[in-house]
């Protein structure tokens, strides 16, 4: 109680200095939170735009025969795996469109549209027409529409067996989609599984199992579990991390840079507080000498500066957290993607990062006060009187 009272008096005696110290700490914490949140938001944005509407785990045949038989039981088991959110079965295969100006190779993909929409978001990407609702109805991408001047109601003549040039299947275009990826828009012809069954003769077989998980970074571990426990021999399980090694390396580099920036900011805050409190000990040595002459012991003297460090830390960190969040919100809200007009970076707050940064900052401020506190405890009354 005594130490806190004296600490408050010391701080209020020079309000301008106290303000600048707290504001300096706030800036340091704000930079930590802003940079950490910015990189976290960037990673979240890149991850969503790269694999947000794609399966995190894909299970396919490991042989020349692409068809998967007896898939019902494994799919039911996979749906029960912890962390799995969506499981979609797919029938697809390559076909030539013979009634274009020149033959074009397409990938005819058969889904349960409502089920597949949970992963791919097809329904939100249809900008003209409707989703396939019956056999032999299909939707095609924007690039394919533009390149071949297609309209609703047009027919695609699909040939899958090149040895029989007159053996074709006709599908009718009922909609156009745009997923924002030209390679997909120009290649995928999306339809119902009943259509692909008819075109390719798959029967009840499928060609792949697409899995979405709650935490994309856990996909590799979940894929390992699925492969070891639920998938029969002859199938391969591939997680998105195995096909996006460069993206993961970029995330790791960003995370390391975040930690380095936070470390340098923290060091600068600690040095600033330590040097300021050390100067305060010198400035207040006369008052400390009088207090010790009146009975204040070494522990109480040191506690004064430990409490000052704590006050600086709590005050500066609280202000810094709000300032950092405000800066990140302002950046995310006002910096737009020139191509889409939407936000360049998602406003996603990592509360673990914020709480950990705040706790470390407060502890660092208290540690920074340790050296001045030790000096205060060793201050000799006789020395103060002699130099007074």
Task: Give an account of the 3D structure.
This protein has 388 residues and is an alpha+beta fold. It has two domains: 2-50 and 247-387, no CATH class; 64-233, no CATH class. Helices cover 57% and strands 17% of the residues. The chain contains 16 helices and ten strands. Strands 2-3-8-5-7-6 form a six-stranded mixed β-barrel, surrounded by four helices. Strand 2 (84-97) and strand 3 form a beta hairpin. Helix 1 (2-13) packs across helix 13. It starts with a helix and ends with a helix. The relative contact order is 0.18.
Question: SSE layout and pairings?
Answer:
Blueprint lengths: L1 H12 L1 H37 L5 E5 L10 H8 L4 E14 L6 E8 L1 H8 L1 H4 E4 L7 E5 H7 L6 E5 L9 E9 L4 H4 L2 E5 H8 L7 E6 L5 H11 L5 E5 H4 L1 H39 L1 H9 L4 H37 L16 H18 L1 H8 L3 H7 L1
Parallel strand pairs: 3-8, 5-7
Antiparallel strand pairs: 1-9, 1-10, 2-3, 2-6, 2-9, 4-7, 5-8, 6-7
Tell me the structural class: alpha+beta
Q: Give the count of helical stretches.
A: 16
Characterize the main sheet: 6 strands, mixed, barrel
Overall mean pLDDT stands at: 80
Helix content: 55-70%
Q: How many structural domains are formed by the residues?
A: 2
Q: State the order of secondary-structure elements, H for helix, E for strand.
A: HHEHEEHHEEHEEHEHEHEHHHHHHH
- Alpha-carbon distance between the two ends: 28 Å
Catalogue the unreliable spans.
none
Number of strands: 10
Spatial arrangement of strands, main beta sheet: 2-3-8-5-7-6
Query: What is the general shape?
Result: elongated
Bin the strand percentage: 15-25%
Rg measurement, Å: 32 Å
């Amino acid at each position: 109680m005594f130490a806190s009272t004296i600490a408050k008096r010391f701080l209020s005696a020079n309000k301008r200095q106290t303000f600048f110290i707290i504001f300096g700490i706030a800036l340091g914490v704000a930079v930590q939170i802003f940079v950490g949140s910015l990189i976290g938001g960037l990673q979240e944005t890149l991850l969503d735009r790269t694999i947000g509407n794609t399966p995190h785990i894909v299970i396919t045949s490991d042989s020349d025969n692409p068809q998967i038989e007896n898939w019902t039981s494994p799919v039911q088991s996979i749906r029960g795996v912890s962390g799995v959110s969506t499981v979609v079965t797919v029938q697809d295969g390559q076909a030539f469109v013979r009634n274009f100006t020149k033959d074009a190779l397409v990938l005819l993909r058969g889904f349960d549209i409502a089920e597949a929409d949970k992963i791919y978001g097809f329904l939100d990407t249809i900008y003209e027409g409707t989703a396939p609702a019956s056999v032999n109805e299909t939707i095609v991408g924007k690039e394919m529409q533009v390149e071949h001047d297609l309209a609703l109601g047009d027919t695609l003549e699909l040939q899958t067996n090149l040895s029989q040039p007159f053996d074709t299947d006709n599908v009718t275009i009922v909609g156009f989609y745009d997923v924002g990826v030209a390679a997909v828009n120009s290649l995928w012809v999306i339809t119902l599984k009943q259509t692909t069954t008819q075109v390719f003769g798959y029967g009840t077989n499928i060609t792949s199992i697409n899995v979405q998980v709650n935490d994309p970074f856990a996909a590799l571990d979940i894929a390992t579990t699925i492969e070891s426990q639920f998938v029969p021999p002859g199938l391969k399980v591939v997680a998105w991390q195995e096909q996006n090694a460069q993206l993961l390396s970029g995330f790791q580099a960003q995370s390391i840079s975040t930690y380095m920036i936070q470390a340098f900011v923290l060091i600068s805050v600690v040095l600033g507080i330590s040097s300021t409190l050390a100067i305060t000990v010198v400035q207040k040595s006369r008052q400390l000498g009088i207090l010790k002459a009146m009975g204040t012991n070494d522990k109480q003297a040191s506690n004064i500066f430990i409490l000052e460090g704590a006050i600086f830390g709590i005050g500066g960190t609280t202000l810094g957290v709000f300032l950092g969040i405000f800066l990140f919100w302002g950046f995310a809200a006002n910096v737009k993607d020139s191509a889409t007009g939407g936000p360049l970076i998602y406003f996603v707050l990592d509360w673990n990062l914020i709480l950990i940064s705040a706790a470390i900052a407060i502890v660092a401020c208290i540690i920074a006060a340790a050296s001045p506190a030790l000096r205060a405890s060793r201050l000799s009354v006789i020395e103060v009187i002699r130099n007074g």
